[in-house]
Amino acid sequence: MTTRPLLREALAACRNVRVVHGEGETAVTALAGVSIELEDSERAALLGRSGSGKTTLLHVLGGLVEPTTGSVEWRARPLASIDRAARGAIRASGIAYVFQGANLLPHFTAFENVAFAAELAHGDDTPPFAPSVLLQLVGLGARLDHLPSELSGGEAQRVAIARALAQRPRLLLCDEPTGHLDSDTGERVLDLIDALQAEFGFALVIATHAADVAARYDRQIELEDGVVIREDRQ
Predict the structure, then answer these.
(1) What is the mean pLDDT of each run of 10 residues along the chain (234 residues)?
(2) 219 has which bridge partners?
(3) Which residue spans within 75-180 are E strands per DSSP?
(4) Rounded distance between C-alpha atoms, residue 93 and residue 169, angstroms
(5) How many angstroms separate the CA atoms of 231 and 186, rounded?
(6) Which SS3 state, helix, strand or coil, does residue 165 take?
(7) Residue 194 neighbours by CB distance under 10 Å
């Protein structure tokens, strides 16, 4: 007797998602019917030029942008069917972002930026790592008390990664995380993200315009004009 493999439940999914900004003759279609599924611990890259829809797709997956039509699911549950508070909890503790710029709170130290993210995500619950431990993991144990203005671009981005990990995410969404960095620093930041993903096992999606960056990951999804034009798995 042949045993059929068990189907794995998707961590997150988009089902025929369209996103249209504006109305009438000035309407702009950012996504034009995109369907993808992401599994636990998956490593994927969204590849495409500026304006292809990469950032919009990241925001839709993360629940920051509601689709004009189609649906977004988290653990097979449509986000639209979940009340606002529950959706906020998913975004706070299940999904984390690393943006092109670090976007740190300018008057908070590196330690305070990470601690604040942990508190927002988990309230009084104790996170799995103290902020100081997270900052040590990203190589900034000696920079805990430094403000963002006292950090280099690469150091600030590593604080942003530590801040994201403080949320204990199951899904980490990175939008051109090395776009403002020189090539050597950018390579080190990508190496760090990959090492942390291997250690903690969260699903990872990185948006990039660079084919060599996309080639680092097991799955490449290429977008053009809001449509998936190619998908490869290694």
Answers:
(1) 51 95 91 96 96 95 92 88 78 85 94 91 66 94 96 96 92 93 93 95 96 95 96 88
(2) 44, 233
(3) 77-78, 95-98, 171-175
(4) 6
(5) 25
(6) helix
(7) 15
